[in-house]
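Obj.: predict assembly geometry.
Materials: sequence records (below).
Method: joint structure prediction, all chains together.
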Amino acid sequence: MITVDARGDACPIPVVKTKNAVKELKGAGQVRTLVDNEIAVQNLAKMAGQKGWEIKSEKKDENTYVVDITVSEASGNETAGEEKDACIPDRRNAGTVVVISSDQMGSGNEELGRVLMKSFLYALTQQDELPRTILFYNTGAKLTCEGSASLEDIRDLEAQGVEILTCGTCLDFQHLKEKLAAGRISNMYEIAEKQLQAGHVVRP
Amino acid sequence: MGSEEKAIVFCRGGGCTAKLGPQILSRVLEKLPKGVPDPNLLIGYDSHDDAAVYKVTEELAVVQTLDFFPPMVEDPYIFGQIAAANAMSDVYAMGGDVKTALNIVCFPEKMDLNILGRIMEGGAQKVKEAGAVLAGGHSIMDDSVKYGLSVNGLVDPRHMFANNTARPGDKLILTKKLGVGLVCTAERAGLASDNAMQQAVRSMTTLNRSASMVCRRHDVHACTDVTGFSFLGHLHEMLDGRLSAIVYADCVPRIREALDYADDFMITAAGQRNRNYVGSNVRFDSISFAMQELLFDPQTSGGLLIAAAADDADAIWTELYAEHLPARIVGEVTEKNDPEILVVR
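Observations (raw structure tokens):
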């Protein structure tokens, strides 16, 4: 049996220490954790419930609760109780590539086109399924640069794991190379490859 | 980030995870002498609001609120921003405007004063963004850092939002992502990704001002800000013991990684206290453990939770969306039912 003294530790430390101790068991065994408050006992019980471990707890005195966790072979390591959260998949769809080849969406009215493109990029950030990659080229390259009204949204997408690639030639041509403010510079080889390998390509 | 800056984190769980539990609080508040009721006190602690509203004239009322807490992030400037955004949030939840603010500071005598300077700069920046004046403050020596604001605002009492006046049939809108408590806890354990932490910081430093402005253009029945008592805790208070609600878990805006951190048990004592407080009123219909934890997760500087008739809710949501807030319609209010809150996929 491994004993963990987590008295004086604030949550989630007692839970983390206990989880690490169970890992050390490398299979069946017992971990005894000492904590100093009822809430920590409840948080340990939640973890045990999730992992399928047996748990017993006893209040020894005002500042000591003894929590015994028994890990059986079956519930040993991983999986038991770890139902995968089906409603929250990785929001990136590995197959989708979005191509932004202009700073406007649609043709006709330029001002409207720019408003629509800003709105489109924001709407992308709110989707349940995100593209794997967004390619910016021609005047679309302006959107990943300083001064772009969509910069926040593009950074949000990048923060959520979406790959943001901007055509280097396009930045050079428009004297924007120093202004790139999201993602990284790409080349035509990569831009071609990304589109060829895509499950599907979205062109707003 | 310098080592001195790191020193301001005490790992006890900052932000709204540091709140006293609602159960403990209720026990104390119930025993306080109420005094002579003042008809001009429109909202006080009776209605579980964390601000007072005092009517001056038929068109004008003063909103008074304060909030302060220990750091939940390492960067003192960002901590200042978050604490200030959080303190001013109550005024916005009522549909008011912030007018003046005073600093509340607890700071160890021996700590580097530059850190305090950065905290207060962050706070001042947010007060400025709110269009209000930082008019002074009060500082005391303490073992640990705490910062926040005492805030005064103005509201038109005829168009003020209470937190407990929702109606059956209302849709519920949440204006910010849930999960900042879990992410900050994971960050302290060294587990949070940069992406998740960036999202959490951006969310916590965002004022509820623009969301409040949108609400004022519509017929909003009830509004509150989601903070330490978690989404479900604040929803419970909104339902006022006379209504029920259905929550659509899939629609709840969340920092995606927060669910991973819940699965790694990056869970706080405050989250469990919220579960103890409100859990018996909630039934989860095949909702994962991580999602449950997210709904009990104490939020620092969380978003507004808005109740409005279905048609208005659609319009409000569309306008919030145009303000680039990650708002979603997350549920609906029903006649009183058992359970009080039903969470479905």
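Conclusions so far: The first strand of chain A starts at residue 2 and ends at 5.
To do: check interface contacts against the pulldown list.
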